[in-house]
Amino acid sequence: MSTAQSLSNQNVYGVTYATVDGSGIHFESELAIQLSDGTLTTLRMPTHLSERQAIQQLVCGRQAC
After folding, report:
1. Where does the chain show beta strands of DSSP type E?
2. Structural domain includes residue 53
3. What's the angle, vertex CA 13, arms to CA 3 and CA 57, rounded to 5?
4. 64 or 42, which is more confident?
């Protein structure tokens, strides 16, 4: 069974965290995978540009963060 087939049989979610501080907005994304034994594992992944732009617009509006 390939990794893709294995993941398609699992509950997989993309999670992105956004933090705003004095130097701007920071993003951290991960893939959360619930394994068949009920445990949860996470893998770091890059945040997609469109997702960063949408979150920045929501959090900051038209102003720069």
Report:
1. 11-21, 24-34, 40-45
2. no
3. 130
4. 42
Model pTM? 0.68
Q: In which domain, by residue range, is 29 found?
A: 3-46
Q: For 14-37, b where at least 16 C-beta lie within 10 A, e where not — what string? A: eeeebeeeeeeeeeebbeebeeee
What is the Cα–Cα distance from 34 to 44, expressed in whole angstroms?
15
Instruction: Kindly list the distances between the CA atom of residue 55 and the CA atoms of 4, 16, 20, 32, 64, in Å, as whole numbers in the listed order.
Output: 28, 10, 11, 20, 12
24 is a domain residue:
yes
For residue 3, is pLDDT > 70? no
Evaluate whether 25 touches 18 at the Cβ level (below 8 Å): yes
